[in-house]
Amino acid sequence: MNGWNISRMARRGALIVVALGASILGGCNAGANNLVEANRALTDRNAALTAQNESLNNLNQQLQGELNRRNQMVEELNRHIAALRAGSGDLDARYQSLLAQLGNLRFGDLDPVTDAALRELASQHADILEYDSARGMLRFKSDLTFASGSDQLAESVRGTLATLANILNGAAANYEVRVVGHTDTQRVRQIAGRRFTNNLELSAFRSISVRNELVNRGVSAQRVEIAGRGEFDPLVPNTASGNTPQNRRVEIFLGRAMNTASPTITNVPDRATDAPTRPPVREEIMK
Fold this sequence. Notes:
It is a single chain. The protein is 53% helix and 10% strand. By secondary structure, the protein is of the alpha+beta class. The chain folds into two domains: 1-105; 112-273, CATH 3.30.1330.60. Helix 2 packs antiparallel against helix 4 (155-169). Residues 258-287 have low confidence and may be disordered.
């Protein structure tokens, strides 16, 4: 083999080596590029997962805060409910206490000083006067307080009413007064010029006479209420003739809350206003 052939073969071998090296180098570069791309993809994925994790952590913190707030609200509501239950128990105990106190009260109960004064008055005038302590009521017998069929006070009773007025202006100054007239079922005789024509009107005008006597003795007119019941509230059944002395009476009640601003006549029929000398009339249901 001559030298030219050897040189040619050497060049060919060199080219093969170069080509092989280039091929190998190209393959390495491609692998490196793939690794770079894969690494970049992993980095991006990791960044995305990190951001997502942070977002989830933030959301978890928000939810935990909301849960804590709701738990606090529940605790506060439970405390409020417990307080209401305790208060309800106190109110119920107070209510039961008030019921017990109310059960021990009697309508018409007066203070001891007033009660004693009225008892003494009734004992001194037992012929014309009775006293019912439980009702806070004085009862005047009409037959001894008025002449038959009249609304004019008998002179004999004015002293008793004067003493009563002193009590009303003294020990009983804080009480209001209701004067109620009553009759039996005897018919009123029709006499020209009379202010009343029936028992209802007669009872009303008798209560007016008692009221006027008390006011003239210094009792404030605003404290005194007037009512006429006629024959409609008897103490005992009326007799066949109607002549029933027990039912002819004037009752005076003392109370703290009668809420009366001015004297009135109750249960008087409209016709009672026909006569110009009669006072204003107001109809009212009496108990």
